[in-house]
Amino acid sequence: MRMVDVIAKKRDGGTLAIKEIEDFVRAYTADQIPDYQASAFAMAIYFQGMDEQESAALTKAMAASGDQLDLSRIAGTKVDKHSTGGVGDKTTFILSPIVAAAGVPVAKLSGRGLGHTGGTIDKLEAFPGFETELEEDTFIELVNKNKIAIAGQSGNLTPADKKLYALRDVTATVNAMPLIASSIMSKKIAAGSDAIVLDVKVGSGAFMTDLPAAKELARTMVNIGNELDRRTVAVISDMDQPLGRMVGNTLEVKEVIDVLRGNGPEDIYRLSVRLAAHMLVLGGKAKDVETGQTLANKLIQDGSALDIFRKFLESQGADPTLVDHPERLAKANNIITVEASASGYISTIDATKIGQAAGMLGAGRMTKGDIIDHAVGVEVKAKVGDWVEKGDVLVDLHANRDDVSEVVSVVKDSYQISDHAPEERPLIFHEMI
């Protein structure tokens, strides 16, 4: 294969053969193709796109470029869930024990976070002693025992994607839809589950800020999954304000416990139940999504999901009694209130700025070496549509330092107050089944 010919073919709108895509991924991973040619290839894809077969071939080749988890020793249909990311999104910790309580195995590999708050693994480490580095045999044993295990990703999972993403990041090709979709789906395919539920976020706190782009990404990923024999569904959900009320690692974990007790904010509760319902359908425990929702609600209300959550924590080294005594989890030294500067309706909240505020307090990391402060974060007291009087609390900042003036400014900038109530925005915009 001459890489220049492959670049020219895609540049001119041609359809690549599966072997051409496989050869590119293999050679680029092995450092046999220079970055300047890979950059040209990514730019050609940016402008010309890829069809379903090309996108699936790229995804499969990237998944095969490194370690792949074999889950065949786990009984039942393994169902995974992926979110494209947002502010205050902690649905994984809620829906996983729900689904496991119904007998659907959840074998999840997750990563750490760069950005506003920690990733799934960082948030789980808010429970002291929680073990995220599991040997494959132990991981599989725990899923067979409890129907749930969540572990850190292998360092050699989809190395082709890591390399290509780093290149896209500095060549203005991150937003190429086939490359976004293949990047996400290659990790899901390598993780070995039989079926996948995708939560595609849209709004000010999401990677996709407009609905047409979110639909295109969801459709592309669903097509890839189905093309590669993974039953895949997508839910497009709102991220135009923080999800739930807590943003920050320990704060979010406490909200998870609250939801699993049948309480918590309505938006995070409803979305978690809806996503769990799709997983229950894919796992063969519900005939349709409505039946799945009924079952998911039952497993919360009768305490089954919370019982599984306790077993999950204990099996991976954490103290399960923290579920019953979340007040023993880490707390910040200071709570600083941010008050409304005028009376009116909360018309918008810039979710990204709320995330930035949490990151500035230390809840996230900007580089891999940064240390996360699990205790800090943002507690959202007023959400879109709420009426506030001047001086009412918009946000509580949980901080471990005294000077948070810059953080306060960011939070104030994130809120818009109006005389008129805003038009209600759906929690779920669209579902692709």
TrEMBL record:
One Pfam family of this chain: Glycos_transf_3
Biological processes per GO annotation: pyrimidine nucleobase metabolic process; pyrimidine nucleoside metabolic process
Residues annotated as domain Pyrimidine nucleoside phosphorylase C-terminal: 345-418
TM segment ranges: none
UniProt key word Transferase: yes
InterPro entries linked: Glycosyl_Trfase_fam3 (IPR000312), Glycosyl_Trfase_fam3_N_dom (IPR017459), Glycosyl_Trfase_fam3_N_dom_sf (IPR036320), Nuc_phospho_transferase (IPR035902), PYNP-like_C_sf (IPR036566), PYNP_C (IPR013102), Pyrmidine_PPas_bac/euk (IPR018090), Pyrmidine_PPase_CS (IPR017872)
EC primary class: transferase
Subunit structure and binding partners: Homodimer.
Function: Catalyzes phosphorolysis of the pyrimidine nucleosides uridine, thymidine and 2'-deoxyuridine with the formation of the corresponding pyrimidine base and ribose-1-phosphate.
Protein name from the UniProt record: Pyrimidine-nucleoside phosphorylase
Source species of the chain: Salicibibacter halophilus
